[in-house]
Amino acid sequence: MSSNSLVISPRKLRSDLYSYSYQEDSKTPLVISVLSSLIERTLARNERISKSYGGFGKTRVFDCREIPDMTIQSYLERIFRYTKAGPSVYVVAYVYIDRFCQNNQGFRISLTNVHRLLITTIMIASKYVEDMNYRNSYFAKVGGLETEDLNNLELEFLFLMGFKLHVNVSVFESYCCHLEREVSIGGGYQIEKALRCAEEIKSRQIVQDPKHHHHQQYQFSRILL
User: Which InterPro entries does the entry mention (predicted)?
Assistant: First the structure.
């Protein structure tokens, strides 16, 4: 039975969330299966549209020369296995992907760009959410890229996004709800709500005080390392 068909009760869900750790035997977060399912659906839809109406425009920044021989699920599991990024990182990465697609109408997720898009957004989301992170060179090895390529992809993504990386708790929760609806369509279990992580993100919300500008600069300096 595939992970997408598992039925997880709310009690089990909460237990998995609050017992989550970064140990070697950590289970793969449910959000990875949900995100993988959502992206696979998006790829299939975009493929049908491409065949019917032609190409998608000129935004080719994430295109690779050869399509990686790895499924989305396997790629996300690999990223988790070697980075141990928490569940909220994948939710925030999903927020970034959605924003990017909205801001760049000429871009559509495809087999030629999805892997590079995922490793880039997950790395940036990890820098935003996590207190400690691996270097870009490590993420590049995990993602199967050269460090220089990932550095360039990060910068391209940040500028195309206008450096709009902040995700407040209400936005975070709304994307969790969207992923839960995806589950109700294709699986029957619920995504980790990541309540603790949501509270951590909430604590990052910028308070309108004299420290506002300094905090914003600090966030960008972490991203641009």
Answer: Cyclin-like_sf, Cyclin_P/U, Cyclin_PHO80-like
Contact assessment for residue 127 and residue 135, using Cβ atoms and an 8 Å cutoff = no
- Determine contact, residues 76/35, Cβ cutoff 8 Å: yes
- Domain positions in the chain are 10-185
**Distance in angstroms (rounded) separating the CA atoms of residues 202 and 92:** 13
Angle between helices 147-160 and 87-103 (to 10 degrees): 60
| Rounded CA separation 106/118 (Å) | 18
What CATH topology corresponds to 10-185?
Cyclin A; domain 1 (1.10.472)
Count Cα atoms within 13 angstroms, Cβ side, for 5.
2
Burial 34-48 (b: 16+ CB within 10 A, else e): bbbbbbbebbeebee
Picking from 67, 86, 72, the residue whose alpha carbon sits closest to that of residue 38 is: 72
pLDDT mean over 117-136: 94
